[in-house]
C-alpha cells in the first residue's frame, strides 16, 4: 500500500497531466461551454488548493483536493465536455 506522501505526489502529477491533456470540446459561447469552463476552473482550483495544503504540511487535504479536482475533470470527459488524446490512460472513457 502506498504511503500518504507517495499517493499525494502521484495524484498531484495525475491532475496536472490531466489538465494539460484535456481541451474543451464544446463551443464556449453555449451553456455547455459554460459548464465545461466551470469544470476546468474547479479542477484548476483544486490543484491550487492541494498545492497550498501540501505547502502547509497537510497531506490529507492535499490528496483530497487533488482527487476532487481530478473527479471534476474526469466527469467532464465522460460527459463529452472535453477532448483527450486517444492514447491517454488518465481518463475513463
Comma- or semicolon-separated keywords:
single chain, 93 residues, mainly alpha, Substrate Binding Domain Of Dnak, Chain:A, Domain 2, two-stranded antiparallel ribbon, 68% helix, globular
What does this structure look like?
The chain is mostly helical and 93 residues long. Helices cover 68% and strands 4% of the residues. It has one domain (4-83): AF1782-like (Substrate Binding Domain Of Dnak, Chain:A, Domain 2), CATH 1.20.1270.90. It has 3 helices and 2 strands. Strands 1-2 form a two-stranded antiparallel ribbon. Helix 1 (4-21) runs antiparallel to helix 2, helix 1 (4-21) packs parallel to helix 3 and helix 2 (31-55) runs antiparallel to helix 3. It starts with a helix and ends in a 10-residue tail after the last strand.
Brief summary of the model shown:
By secondary structure, the protein is mainly alpha-helical.
Distance between the termini: 27 Å
* Helix content range: 55-70%
CATH superfamily: AF1782-like
Which CATH-level-2 architecture?
Up-down Bundle
Number of domains: 1
Low-pLDDT residue intervals, each spanning 5 or more residues = none
